[in-house]
Fold this sequence. Notes:
The chain is α/β, with parallel strands linked by helices.
Amino acid sequence: MTNSDPETEPWASLALTPSIAVVGLGGAGSEAVQDLVSLGIPGVRAIAVNTDAKHLLSTGVEERILLGRRELHGHGSGGNRAAVLKLATESREELLRRLAPHEIVFLLAGLGGGTGSALLPYLVRELRATEALPIPVVFLPFQVELETNPTRRENVAASVDELEAMGGLLLALANEKLRRFESLPIRRVFQVRNAYLHSLVASLLDMVENPSQLNVDLASLKNHLRESGLSTLLSGEYHISEPERLVQEALSASMIDFELSERTSALLHLDGGSNMTLRTLDRVVRSVRSHLGDPERLVFGTRVRSEPREVVHLTAVIGGLRPRTVRDVL
Ligand SMILES: Nc1nc2c(ncn2[C@@H]2O[C@H](COP(=O)(O)OP(=O)(O)OP(=O)(O)O)[C@@H](O)[C@H]2O)c(=O)[nH]1
Ligand SMILES: [Mg+2]
């Protein structure tokens, strides 16, 4: 960005990048936030909210909020979603005071416990009524947890139902899809998943924060989401000679659980070098259209770098999903 004189161009401060928060709710959410931060997201504010004081203290993020000090004595909720919901309502103002000033708020939680599964839909709903764009990220428990633990199952079902009914962007990362890494140590498996999540978050932020020739900014993302029902995010990178493979890889490598309805939409952003041709763009768009069964609405943006590049990076917001994730697993 070039320098600007605040006297003659007082509007220049509006060109600052949006303020972003990543918020971990409960144990799994807070661990994921730590991984995201250690992988690096420039300028982001990291926040953890929990009912478990010991876990919160072990979380090395800058802002930590304990809920229910008197009621739960800092011991966590033990899966008690109703108790946490009550605490959330009582702490509504404090939570909104901390979260709502950010323009994009990623909210992360493992569903199944009481804390994350109660706070996540509650905060998404409350933040939707503000200027902030909340982006829920949920980790769905392993199938065996759902089969053997009715409390977990009920907590997952209740929060997913609420999130799906609200529509908007929902990133649902299914633990079951981590089975392909089953020979790795467990903590490492979650780190692999969190690295995948980091690549999605970084792609989305890069798309809205940095100007493009055909621009997709925060306002266009918000407008698109408003019209798109339940949506999710994909990203991928592939050699410029094989744009179809780029789309195929982005779809098949996804750890996100979703199924398309008959009425889909897509917002695409392609980031490539000075050698990226109109034909590459055209092939990506065609390929997306055929995978989505001819979407009702397709918006695309491109960023062409000044130097040539062998790869092209795709960020895609896919809308019109069929709520399915958990109901199928249950
Ligand atoms: N600890 C941990 N759990 C994960 C992770 N990913 C998914 N989970 C699942 O997340 C679910 C919720 O667990 P927690 O985060 O411990 O629950 P909580 O939100 O803290 O709720 P309470 O402890 O019941 O108050 C469980 O079903 C876990 O299997 C992860 O990276 N770490
Ligand atoms: Mg906990």
